[in-house]
Specification:
Homodimer. This is Nitrate reductase. Belongs to the nitrate reductase family. Nitrate reductase is a key enzyme involved in the first step of nitrate assimilation in plants, fungi and bacteria. The protein is an alpha+beta fold. It has 2 domains: about 15-240, Oxidoreductase, molybdopterin-binding domain (Sulfite Oxidase, Chain A, domain 2, Alpha-Beta Complex); about 260-400, Sandwich (Immunoglobulin-like). About 15% of the residues lie in helices and about 30% in strands. It is built from 11 helices and 22 strands. The chain has helices at about 30-35, 55-60, 80-85, 100-105, 125-135, 165, 220-225, 235-240, 245, 320-325, 360; strands at about 15, 25, 45, 65-70, 75, 85-95, 115-125, 145-150, 160, 175-180, 180-185, 195, 210-215, 260-265, 285-295, 300-305, 315, 315-320, 335-340, 350-355, 365-375, 395-400. A hairpin with a 5-residue loop joins strand 4 (about 65-70) and strand 5. It starts with 12 loop residues before the first strand and ends in a 5-residue tail after the last strand. The protein binds ligand MTE. The site of ligand MTE has 19 residues, from strand 3.
Length: about 400
């Protein structure tokens, strides 16, 4: 029995932690088969406590208070948000900072790979429009703090953004009530949440109740005690004991770093190698496939595959399904405009492939992938280990074992 056992959950979601809170994701193969848009019931879930129980009647009365260093404090119902601001839909890939953390512990545990990335269409209003409306007080206001409605042992979940980013529409931050054209699922923040494209999932506050414009960043417990990349020298015990590491603003994680994964072949997948040439003398080939993403609106500009442990690299082919969504427009006020037309930023994962002939594959004992983004940041050979095991983006490897 858990406090939120009333929530309907798909059995394809694999639990990553104990029974409660609910933390889960689909297996990589299942996730990858869905392609660019992950259905809500297979989208990974990261909760820190019980899901607030909100029925549809309560959702109509749900309010979001916007207050603090503003000229005009306002409390919005969902309907007021929908009626007062342009409604937009953006394709956004959410990724948890704890993504690929299991690899950091792989020597001790081999539970497989925890990923925690998923793509969806998110509908809402721009946070920038709402901020324009409440008019932050110039020179005093520096941060926008978001607070969720979940009750955690150390108070509600909350975090913040720099006001300069939050007021920039190009950053794409949304107050969102729909995912893939349907009201949010309870696990994903019903009735309303924040969506922060290009940043770690932890910044996208669910069950949004309050927005405060402030001169300092969020003081919420998890804003400090989570989502940090502490220096590698700081061991977990030391991190727990010495508060100052957490309060150092330089270690906060905001934007995602560039990352890529091999999904085909999956770990533990069986490959059947056939080196016999067909009547034209051609040997069959295998399409290695996967996805990649970067943060901060930066596009992945190259994906490279190595079949010889990183000695040599070959370019993979990349597709950006996000670009197809730039053409679509909805008139319906629920969906809003699919707003990617003018955008030159990228908020979604892309999909790469690399064709390799069976005879080459037969001589490999590992496949590796690495990606680069348009800021020329790229994945490194070595892992940057740190106490929280977040933002792990060393070269992604799949080992190949031979059975005859
Ligand atoms: N918002 C609230 N109110 N409570 C939470 O526990 N978890 C955060 C973020 N927003 C969380 C939250 C984390 S760590 C992540 S990665 C994303 O929500 C996950 O969003 P999802 O469950 O919709 O995938």
């Amino acid at each position: 029995e858990t406090p939120d056992n009333w929530v309907n959950r798909n059995p394809e979601l694999v639990r990553l932690t104990g029974k409660h809170p609910f933390n889960s994701e689909a297996r990589l193969g299942v996730l990858f088969a869905c392609g660019f848009l992950t259905p809500a019931h297979l989208h990974f879930v990261r909760n820190h406590g019980a899901v607030p129980q909100v029925n549809h009647k309560m959702s109509a009365n749900w309010t979001i208070r916007v207050h603090g260093l503003v000229e005009r404090e306002v409390t919005f119902t969902l309907q007021e948000l929908q009626e007062n601001f342009p409604v937009v839909t953006l394709p956004v890939t959410l990724v948890c900072a704890g993504n690929r953390r299991k690899e950091q512990n792989v020597v001790h545990k081999t539970l497989g790979f925890s990923w925690g990335a998923a793509g969806a269409l998110w509908t809402g209003v721009y946070l920038a429009d709402v901020l324009d409306h409440v008019r932050p007080i110039r020179r005093q206001a520096k941060y926008v703090i978001f607070e969720g409605g979940d009750n955690l042992p150390n108070g509600p979940y909350g975090t913040s953004q720099r006001l300069s980013w939050a007021s920039n529409k190009d950053k794409g931050m949304l107050i969102s009530w729909a995912m893939n054209g349907l009201p949010l699922e309870p696990d994903h923040g019903f009735p309303v949440r924040v969506i922060v494209p290009g940043q770690i999932g932890g910044r996208s506050v669910k069950w949004l109740r309050r927005i405060e414009i402030s001169d300092c960043e969020s003081q919420h417990h998890l804003h400090f005690w989570d989502n940090k990349m502490l220096p590698t020298q700081v061991m977990p015990d030391q991190a727990r004991a010495e508060k100052h590491w957490w309060y150092d603003p330089r270690y906060i994680i905001t934007e995602l770093n560039v990352n890529s994964v091999i999904a085909k072949p999956d770990h533990n997948e069986k490959l059947y190698i056939d080196k016999t040439p067909d009547e034209n003398g051609t040997i069959a080939s295998y399409l290695i496939r996967g996805y990649a993403y970067a943060g901060g609106g930066r596009r992945v500009t190259r994906v490279e595959v190595s079949l010889d442990h990183g000695e040599t690299w070959t370019l993979g082919n990349i597709e950006y399904p996000e670009d197809r969504f730039r053409e679509v427009r909805h008139q319906d006020s629920f969906y809003g405009t699919l707003d990617a037309t003018e955008r030159d930023t990228s908020f979604c994962w892309c999909f790469w492939s690399f064709d390799v002939s069976h005879d080459v594959l037969a001589s490999c004992d590992a496949l590796m992938v690495r990606a680069m983004d348009e800021g020329l940041a790229f994945q490194q050979r070595d892992m940057y280990w740190h106490a929280l095991g977040m933002m792990n983006n060393w070269w992604f490897r799949v080992a190949i074992h031979r059975t005859v």
